[in-house]
Amino acid sequence: MTESARRSRSRSRSPWNADPLSWLATDWLPIACAVYAGVESLVMLLLLGQAGGRPLVQAAAAGLAVGAFLLIHITTRPHRGPLREPVAWLAVALVLGGLALSAAGYAGAVFRIELWFAPASVALLLIALTPFSTTLQLARYGAVSVAFTAFATLVLADRAPLGWPVPVTVFLVVLQIVLATVGCIVFVSVVTRLFETWNERPLGLDGESPDADHRERALAASGSGPALVDRVDADMSARLAAPMRLLHDVLDRGAVTERDSARARELAAALRTGLIAEAEDTWLARLVRGRPIEVDDPGRLAERLSLPQRTALRAMLDALLAQPDSGFVAGRVELKAADRGTVAVALRIISTLPEGRRVTFLAPYYVTLQAAVDDIRWRNGTTLEVDFEVPVTDAPPRAVVQRSPAPPPDRPRAT
């Protein structure tokens, strides 16, 4: 995948879409934001005396903001799927309605605009929406919130003495919302791209691998800087060792024989075959290279798996290989095209763990798969069998190496 395509796809994913299991606990984030917003409102209104002449109106405005956080909390509870955008817009409307109500309650009153609690609630709502929103969605929520807040501030500045020039007043109010929007967008972009990059790393790289030599090789294979340069140099030297010996022999003799020509053709064919095979490896084949896992994927269907599906499958394989307690012996992953336009995936795992301990060990990863795939079936026994189907929306992957088309057939000649 090119860098531009990777960035385009990362903009259409939320952290929850990238890895549902890691974000199952984020339904508590809106509760934390609600508590913070509620405490801040109480401090501003009661302790700092910013209730104005209509304290009940300000209390109602704070209640609307807390209601927006509770809405997100309820709709993002586990097993309820991702947060739908209409629900997110309803939460945004509630918190902006609270801001408008608060601004109306301050009309004609004297208060310190820098202690206004409502804009902070808007910024906190964007934070609560972050795990379930894409960068484009956050940009839309943030843009609408900034525009609405700026308009409400201009109206309020016309009706109440705020003690600051109007541009400075608008700047003070919208700054925290702008910072929250930018920060959340950067966070989502970085997290989703890191998940995609993590899926390409060799297995066992993030955990405690019992094979120290393999771990060192994996670190060098996925590293950067000197380690990456050394690896590339070593690979190129190994590939070109036989051709270089042939060239040295020819130069020493000063003549090319028929045997040299035949040997050169063999080396060129072998080198081309190896390069094509590596270029057309899928992310799954690269993932398990050098490990006791066989991949049967002649149609390169692994490339059609989405990021959450890749994350779920990789998490299970990573746990089996990186944890000594897994008792993993060998595995096989088979991918075939199904009749309904989906990809059927069959995972076979041989482990020395007893059946009960094996089920307990793999249960969290089964939950992850269940959240990302369809029709999952789990059969325990001497060999653990996990079968599931993956809904596919992308077009079939194109071959990395484009081969020359076959020559057209000879046209019949008129007699």
List the helices and strands and how they pair.
Blueprint: H1 3-10, H2 15-18, H3 28-47, H4 55-75, H5 85-105, H6 118-129, H7 135-159, H8 166-198, H9 212-222, H10 226-253, H11 258-279, H12 283-288, E1 293-296, H13 307-322, E2 328-337, E3 343-351, H14 355-372, E4 374-379, E5 383-390
Helix pairs in contact: 3-4, 3-6, 4-5, 4-6, 5-6, 5-7, 6-7, 6-8, 7-8, 9-10, 10-11, 13-14
Transmembrane segments: 21-49, 55-75, 87-109, 115-132, 139-157, 169-191
Keywords: Membrane, Transmembrane, Transmembrane helix
Region (Disordered): 395-415
What does this protein look like?
There is one protein chain. With 415 residues, the chain is of the alpha+beta class. It folds into 3 domains: 3-198, no CATH class; 212-279, no CATH class; 292-390, Heat Shock Protein 90. It contains 14 helices and 5 strands. It has helices at residues 3-10, 15-18, 28-47, 55-75, 85-105, 118-129, 135-159, 166-198, 212-222, 226-253, 258-279, 283-288, 307-322, 355-372; strands at 293-296, 328-337, 343-351, 374-379, 383-390. The chain has a 5-stranded mixed β-sheet with strand order 1-2-3-5-4. Strand 1 (293-296), helix 13 (307-322) and strand 2 (328-337) form a beta-alpha-beta unit. The two termini are 53 Å apart. Residues 204-224 and 400-406 have low confidence and may be disordered. The chain crosses the membrane at residues 21-49, 55-75, 87-109, 115-132, 139-157, 169-191. Residues 395-415 are annotated as: Disordered. Keywords: Membrane, Transmembrane, Transmembrane helix.
